[in-house]
Write a structure and sequence with these properties.
The chain is an alpha/beta fold and about 675 residues long. It folds into 5 domains: about 210 residues, no CATH class; about 55 residues, Alpha-Beta Complex (Molybdopterin biosynthesis moea protein, domain 2); about 80 residues, Molybdopterin biosynthesis moea protein, domain 3 (Molybdopterin biosynthesis moeA protein, domain 3), CATH 2.170.190.11; about 140 residues, 3-Layer(aba) Sandwich (Molybdenum Cofactor Biosythetic Enzyme, Chain A), CATH 3.40.980; about 70 residues, Beta-clip. The protein contains 15 helices and 34 strands. The chain has a 6-stranded mixed β-sheet with strand order 3-2-1-4-6-5, sandwiched between helices. It has a 6-stranded mixed β-sheet with strand order 13-10-12-11-15-14, with no helix packed on it. The radius of gyration is 31 Å and the shape is flat. The two termini are about 50 Å apart. The structure holds ligand LQZAQKY5 and molybdate ion. Ligand LQZAQKY5 binds next to helix 11 and helix 14. Belongs to the MoeA family. One of its GO terms (molecular function) is metal ion binding. Catalyzes the insertion of molybdate into adenylated molybdopterin with the concomitant release of AMP. One of its GO terms (biological process) is Mo-molybdopterin cofactor biosynthetic process.
Length: about 675
Amino acid sequence: MFDLILVADWSAAARPTGKTPRKDAIWVCADLQGRQTVEYFPTRAQALAFIDDWLNRGHRTLLGFDFAMGFPSGFAETLTGEPTALSVWDWLARHVEDNADNSNNRFHVAETINRRFPGIGPLWGRPGTHDHPDLPDRGTDRRDHGVPDHRTVEGFTPSAQSVLKLFTTGSVGSQSLLGCAALSGLRARHASLRVWPQETGFEHVKDANLLVEIYPSLYEPADHPIKDAGQVIATARALRAASADWFTAPASQPDASRIATEEGWIFGVLPPSDCFALPPGTDWTPVDVALETLRSGTPCGMGRETISIYASPGRILAADLVATRANPPHANAAVDGWAFAHATLAPGGIPVVAGRSAAGQPFAGSIPPGHAVRILTGAEIPSDTDTVALQEDAHVSDDLLYLKAIPRIGANTRKAGEDVASGDPVLSAGTILRPGDIAVAIAAGHGSLSVRTRLKVGVLSTGDEITPPGSTTGIPDVNRPMLLAMLGQWGLEPVDLGHAPDEADRLAAILDKAGTDAILTSGGASAGDEDHLSRLMRDLGSVHHWRIAIKPGRPLMLGHWNDTPLFGLPGNPVAAFTCAALFARPALLQMAGAGWREPQAITVPAGFAKRKKAGRREVLRARLRGGQAEIFRSEGSGLVSGLSWAEGFVLLPDGAVTVEPGDPVHYIPFSELGLG
Ligand SMILES: Nc1nc2c(c(=O)[nH]1)N[C@H]1C(S)=C(S)[C@@H](COP(=O)(O)OP(=O)(O)OC[C@H]3O[C@@H](n4cnc5c(N)ncnc54)[C@H](O)[C@@H]3O)O[C@H]1N2
Ligand code: MOO
């Protein structure tokens, strides 16, 4: 269809990336009738000149860039008054300054954008060194700006990051701000270029030069020492093989024409036709619906207490913490050596004054110009000096100091407050205190902290067959000690509610007098004659969701006993563990005051093959070996040995999937679930 395919891996670098080809820079693959060349560019301007040159040659061209070419719903209209991606491109072209040496004003433009929106945001993320009051540092600092984080297409490419995030690992927002501005210019220079789907809709365009958004991570990189180069080569190959449904498949989305003009789409992402469909006749609750019920239904009602910093590991900070002193409190020496005022040194030996400055024992006198004084690591820099020479670079003879070389002004000194200034925010409310957080709290002047009182969570096992650990008869109680241990790792207060026999009255009495903030039960959650917990909850409790579209864990029951949230976990230990980690943990942490925390999955190649139907999410016990996710030998949810074998979960999506070895899958290490 196309004679020429151009694939660009874009970059938002603020400086030229250097003469030597390297990763995380701009790479362009040009594929002319199947013959590929790949080029590296130190600047955006050079890459655009190269692309201009190709476009001027008059080939039928498909041109792809790897950044979001549209923004989530509502963004364009608030910014430009028009709900189209192309209006945003033109707005950006008027505001972005992107110079030939890559220097640019993207963070300034981002602030200008944020000021047009209500609340705080929607854009976020900036390097710490920039002072941009209207561009929040963290995504969680934003509110009420009215823009969802993701475009529709990103629902089908879960590893794609939000275009609203401008900085740090994997962010694409900066690329998009600079890129969309550049594309506006490209369109102006090349009138024949049409943008799919923003201009064309989800149409199979056969006779135009097309500009599309691409996502190189969809393809296995070609063999090349630099991954970015391998990715543009692989993407160009994939585009050459694109079929008609690449253009038209997104038209199946309910509001396809709005998506096309406002949000755009990644060329090559095909929404599965039966995605999220449950088999007919079932009424299981999708995982995301159950999680949303929990997120909106488990507010924090915990009080506060002030405790010693020594008792604070794992506790949850109740209020934002502000530094009450600077760290370091005074300018001090970073090394053992000699302090002097740089500007006053004369050639030759430097006279040394008597005395010294040591940590905790500052030098008391004054140091005449051109003199030096002995100083030790951590000691205050005497007020009339500004530079420290390293002891190993100096020697003293006859009370004169000789330096091998004069260090630059300010060398080997630490400025007062260079770490934390008094009044700086250091930790935010909801932080679960880790050793590093405790360190900064102390450095910032705190010896005690206001934390949330601990959330008490009761754990109850049910079932007549359950016997105490160590028993030679019955089924030893795996779940209760396991769940109590999980709660402890999450910094909550586990309360052992013991074991209830299969009698509704006894079960109800135990639940009535639990006295905890939440309850986890295991067993009796499914529909059998002996499944007393589910019957009791339906009769006397309130059930919000029962039967979730997940394997393992389908019988999970979410509800309230009296006013206490109750998680009716399935009896099979693997299902109990999985449901506790994926459903109970975020809800309990939110109740405890730590906010809603979603575990972050990483995308890794599968070390296995598997096929699943649409209709439920599947959670496989997994671990990483050799950079690949391997899975446990069996999915049986009674196989407790797999819980010890595993170091994380592979999550397979609700829709149908076929996983082949090497395909990308989502892996959540147990450390992300607070179970490191
Ligand atoms: N008709 C249906 N049957 C089942 C369904 C269903 O939806 N309809 N779901 C199946 C699934 S999936 C699971 S998981 C189990 C969960 O059932 P229950 O929550 O009712 O659990 P129990 O029947 O009480 O126990 C299941 C299994 O786990 C053992 N168990 C229970 N507690 C413990 C414990 N504390 N420590 C160790 N092992 C425990 C128990 O002995 C059973 O072997 O239901 C399926 N059936
Ligand atoms: O939840 Mo059950 O353990 O899926 O078999």
